[in-house]
Amino acid sequence: MEQSENIGELTQSMAKAQAEIRNPAKNTKHTHFKMEYADLTSVLNCIRPVASANGLTFTQAVEALPEGVVISSQINHVSGQWMRQTATVPMPTGSKNLIQDIGSLATYIKRYQAQSMWAICGDDDTDAQDLTLGIESIPQNKIKHIDQLIKTVGADREKFMKAFKISRLEDLTDTQYERAVNQLNQKKGSK
Question: pTM surpassing 0.70?
């Protein structure tokens, strides 16, 4: 990672931004691996408003050079301070559509750089799928909604929490919340 000579103001704004930023919604399913992840649009949509509110911008650039595809992501502060992450990936070989392959590769790297630089998670954690870090927990209105749905359909609250591997409703992630609402509404519709 590269950075400007001084980054004091940038890191101060980043600290504020990271206190506000939420993990992106997992809006895409990988067709081969069957795992959910947040695509680049979802990742950038969770970054932009928080960055802007804290005097930060996020830029990404792609260059096709003889040594490979170079993807650079940079966080800029209104003071002129910055930090940059750059990755060089070899050009795809044996490609039927080189431009499309470069675009796919660049999108993939841009997504991972954005997640890395902003310390957010947009993929299923395949090493520890059942653990939640608490940074993605749902807001109070969603907790009340789930609680009401559990009561309305007459679901066993303890079985519900056991199924989602949580000890309290506040521990649900946004992804789990969406799944739970769908399941409870299906149960409600079948009554």
Answer: no
